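mind reviewing this stuff:

——
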Amino acid sequence: MLHNINPPYLIKKIYSQFKWDTSNNKVLLTFDDGPNPGTTEKILLALNEFNIRALFFCVGTNVERYNSLTNQIIDEGHVVGNHTINHKLLIKLNEKDALREIKSFNSLMLENFNYIVRYFRPPFGWFKFNTGKMMQKTGLTCVMWNLVTYDYHANLEKVKRIVDNYLQSNSIIVLHDSNKTTDIIVDSIKYIVDKAGKHNFEFGAPEECLN
């Protein structure tokens, strides 16, 4: 499980085909597990306030359940990424079933939203040696991170400490669009924005950050 705040250099080297840092020296915000009523709306309002475009790694079952929120994410200029159809651990699935989890999400987005998905993040950050091969088969780019906030612990002070210690100009930051983060997500975003501003770090759109 790769829930290191900033994964080890050796892991990044071995899986160099994955995206661990932004390519343009700008900060990228990413949100996992949504869409989620009561949280997604708060995130979108905050992003609009700060004029930031983000990458939402959505779960297919949530997309189906809350299609209007998915439309809102897209309509407001953000990017939807693949977090599988059912949020299953890929390491517990054979390649055929893992590919079905990934491809089903892509088909859902294309059929229901006329949307072509470009980016993937494995649920819980777990992946196997064959994940890179599956990315080739599905035409996706696997996007990991160099700063996971642990915001799902619902502890804003912990989020602040992590951001203080790990924020870089090329950070790919993981936040969560879930019930666990509802009470702290806006303050977490605002703190990251404030901290980035103090360091003169800029935020980038997903497409430019992941070239």
